[in-house]
Write a structure and sequence with these properties.
Strand 2, helix 2 and strand 3 form a beta-alpha-beta unit. The protein starts with 5 loop residues before the first strand and ends with a strand. It is 33% helix and 25% strand. An 8-stranded mixed β-sheet has the order 3-2-1-4-12-6-13-10, sandwiched between helices. A 3-stranded antiparallel β-sheet has the order 9-7-11. It is of the alpha/beta class and 256 residues long. It has one domain: Spore Coat Polysaccharide Biosynthesis Protein SpsA, Chain A.
Amino acid sequence: MDDLGASIVIAVWNQLAYTRLAVEAIVKNTAPPFEFVIVDNGSRPDVKAYFDSLKEKVEITYIRNEENLGPIRGINQGLKASRFSYVAVIHNDVLIMEHGWLTKILSVMKADPKIGIVGLAGRKEIYKTGCVNEDSLKHNLQNEDLNRPMSEDMAEVAVIDGLCFVMRRELLKRIKGLDEAYGYMHFYDLDLSLESIQAGFKNIVVKVEAMHIGNGGITRKMREYNELVKDDYGLWKRNRKLFERKWRHMLPVKIS
């Protein structure tokens, strides 16, 4: 395993315009070495054509599914195919705006081996019910409808937001990937965060300037998603109960 850089896993399903913005921001602001691991969940041909056009510029492993397996299963495919000692998972509607962001995160993780996951956003408190305390959100996202960005360089949190995070290979080997019991989406990032704590690691948010274009979920607003997942709120409620049962021995968690 190469511990100098990171594998960057992105699961995509159409949305080429958002994907292009996200990928080009990463290429511009990320120092090598790094690799993209792209998992295409049955997108239209223009998505594959775009990544084919990038192969001479950056290292890309491209995995194509003929049907949409959902982001959780797609990310797991990417994690298995990744080769670096650190693995970043990022949504295809996140814009990294800070040059050297990944170098900053890896420096923090290498300086403290007890850090299992570093994210761009996270909450310091999660209740016994599995719901998070939104007032405890720590982030530096340039989104107007969020609370005030963090002033400190880093902050320990209970749970990381899945929009963008980096985990170390040691943690990934212990947990074997994301829990696919959650189905299509919702709660997989909270689950991963508690897996990290249970394994003896801590979760950190690092101050990195970025923007989540689809704050609240671009995919969930797609017509195709509503055809695939008939009841998104019902899926959220199902997964909350699943999460609450699985982690009742640890909940609530509050980082003071």
